[in-house]
Amino acid sequence: MPEKYILALDQGTTSSRAILFNHAGHIISVAQKEFSQIYPQPGWVEHDAEEIWSSQYGVLAEVMARKGIRSSQIAAIGITNQRETTIVWDRRTGQPVYHAIVWQDRRTAAYCDQLKAEGLSGMIQQKTGLIIDAYFSATKLRWILDNVPGVRARALRGELAFGTVDSWLIWKLSAGKLHITDLSNASRTMLLNIHSCQWDEELLKLFDIPRELLPELKASSECYGTTGSIIAPSSDIPIAGIAGDQQAALFGQLCTQPGMVKNTYGTGCFMLMHTGGQAVASRNNLLTTIAWKINNQVEYALEGSIFIAGAIVQWLRDGMHLIRSSAEVEALAASVEGTGGVYIVPAFAGLGAPHWNQYARGSIFGMTRGTSNAHIARAALESIAYQTGDVLKAMEADSGISIRELRVDGGATANNLLMQFQSDLLGVPVVRPTVVETTALGAAYLAGLGVGYWTGLEDIAQQWKAEKRFDPAMAPGDVAAHVSGWQRAVRASIAWAEDK
Description:
This protein is an alpha+beta fold. 35% of the residues lie in helices and 23% in strands. It has 16 helices and 23 strands. The protein is globular and about 65 Å long. It starts with a strand and ends with a helix. The model has no long low-confidence stretch (mean pLDDT 90).
């Protein structure tokens, strides 16, 4: 009998990917396709929802064709996606009424400032676990309703559907039979009460959003339906797993116990701490989010977002021309023993968690006549680790949990110098897994559990293996001196902005 596989669809901000996993959790085949980024005016970021679908469907077909795998060999499909991105489409024709408004889009920032001025921050954070920000879906959806001619009237007549990217893909995969989302994605809309796990009537009224638009709420792992004839007339493939990209990475890293933490090092950094069955309210500017719902059990996480991580290496390459390729940064940084007292605060887009200061700007401190390219490169790498340390301290303060290790994934984790410095700063092991495609793997695990391909968490727990472990080696006094210098630099970066 032919072997069966799990197909993970990983729909990201700049590309759509499809990855086939076998029962051992190993990657069998990968396909990826980039798609267009649309910038109608400064601060606005859009995608063509039809292009999102066509690129995702294209890699789905490609990944199977490469290995000659038939649809009957796919046990289930799992979906993970860029979060908060907002799409509205016609239920009858399937046509989007407007481009997808991407999570990065800032067009509703002034409306968010108005909500804060009205004193609504506390209520919204208590219900949703989120801070008021243009990042989330609710204000984007209201913008479409208020600014695209005829859309609000059509929504009130029940003709339209709203969804984040997971909902859109499942609608298309099921040929319009399924209009659903899971709780991990719903918790990023600013419309879900994360305690009752229901759409919140007070929030819908506040944002003036018709309930008729909303998808049905589902668990993150269950059989929702099938693909029908969209893939192959002879085979209905179950769709059985959904999670937003960062929650999927948390699950793919098998951070399934309270206090376990993962950090994804990409363009920015996203750190999540599993907090169990209780939603931990943040007093330190973190987000409280639903991690997933499995077997009728809802579990939560604290999340901290760092805006600039790997992007600072791109800046060294493209902006400063200190390196020709990103891979060169480690050797350059390693050519000196330290930064020579140099600190870089990479606040190119303000500072994210736990500072949330949109006015701070990128700054370099501590330079002397002896400062070299190598010192700048090393300070750039170290800035990623310092920011991660700030978020982790906030998480430990909020949760009352001291972490035992940090599980890491993302492109920058290939940099051993950075990973060692991260371990030194945190004083705990930093562990890099053998399978670094943890976002797609998390979606695959959720889908496989949903159809019994894997029988339970114990079935997959043994699959997580460390490729390399970095243990702290720096003296505590040296760590304290490094952190003190970083904190002075951050204060100076913020003060410079406030003094303007």
